[in-house]
Amino acid sequence: MADGPRAQLIHIDVDRRLGHEWDEWDGRPLPNQGNYDSSPALFFAWSALTLAVGLTLISLALFLLTPRLRTIHSGLPSMIWSALLVAGSLLWVWWGLLLLSHEIRRPLLPEGLAERGPFLRLMRLTSRIADRFGRRDWVENAAVKVYNNLAVMRGRKVGEGELLLLIPRCLSKVTLDGVLGIAGKYRVPVFVATRGQLARRVIRERQPRAVVAVACERDMVSGLHDVAGKIPVLGLTMTLPAGPCKDASLDLAQLERWVQAYVVQARTGETSGVGSPRVHPSQRPHHQPPEE
Questions:
Q1: How far from each other are the two terminal CA atoms of the chain, in whole angstroms?
Q2: Chain segment 9-30, per-residue pLDDT in tens
Q3: Mean pLDDT, rounded, of the chain
Q4: Beta bridge partners of 212
Q5: What is the pLDDT of residues 209-245, one digit of tens each?
């Protein structure tokens, strides 16, 4: 791969590093050397808990407000309880369809009602609940896997130059070389996202038809929540053996599969002359220690 074409690397320096999700990190080694690999079943378990907790809190609030609501209209509490029962039932049916879609590998819901719609909000809420119990990163890893499985079912394809690869600047040198080799092979421009706002800006300016993004679980869930509803995204999480924001690694084979999932036709980069990829010199991101 080292002898193959190199991708164009778009790199904009800013005064703030990516990784603000890790502000509370105390400098100690991360659990399992920063590998939060989890089964998708973990997300469904925690998301079911999230829905149950949310509906319970709403029911409790309605119960406490019932005497006051009766002073407005005697039948108002019954109407609201009925509406809550219907809404709760529909919510569980929707959750069940998501689970079934994932298990049978067949989209049973339109993307606007699944991975590019309410699923993103459920993923964010589930992350917050899991964070209360110290399981955020594992649950987010599982959530990203579920999201990817739902998204890849759509079979969406884009033409050359319509896919954008977003990576953090904390990748190790070996991993970065591998990423650029894959991007060059398929003629995909690479953008080093030094912070989330900048990643969103480059998406607005370049207007790709799809994105493959690389990030830690925390930044990935945040980014998907903000972007995936507007543009198709596939996400790949990283392993953090040196802690957050430094010398991260990833599954290069999976990255290539995600790129292949979007591109119309694989480009080997082995041709020369007309049609061969134009490779621009790369600016390598500086590997700096994480913020404390």
A1: 36
A2: 665 444 335 456 776 777 788 9
A3: 86
A4: 165, 234
A5: 999 999 999 999 999 999 999 999 999 999 999 988 8
The sign of the CA dihedral 238, 241, 244, 247 is negative
Task: Please spell the DSSP secondary structure of the chain, one letter per residue.
Answer: -TTS----EEE---SS-S-GGGTT--SSPPGGGG-----HHHHHHHHHHHHHHHHHHHHHHHHHHHHHHHHH-TTHHHHHHHHHHHHHHHHHHHHHHHHHHHHHTS--S-GGGTTTTHHHHHHHHHHHHHHHTT-HHHHHHHHHHHHHHHHHTT---B-TT-EEEEE-TTB-HHHHHHHHHHHHHTT--EEE-SSHHHHHHHHHHH--SEEEEEE-HHHHHHHHHHHTTTS-EEEEE-B-TT-TTSSBB--HHHHHHHHHHHBSS-------STTPPP-PPPPPPP--PPP-
What b/e string do you get for 80-118 counting C-beta neighbours within 10 Å, with b at 16 or more?
Answer: eeeeeeeebeeeeebbeebbebbeeeebbbebeebbbbb
**Contact present, 144 and 237 (Cβ < 8 Å):** yes
Is the pLDDT at 160 greater than 50, yes or no?
yes
Alpha-carbon span 132 to 242, nearest angstrom: 24
CB 259 within 8 A of CB 158: no
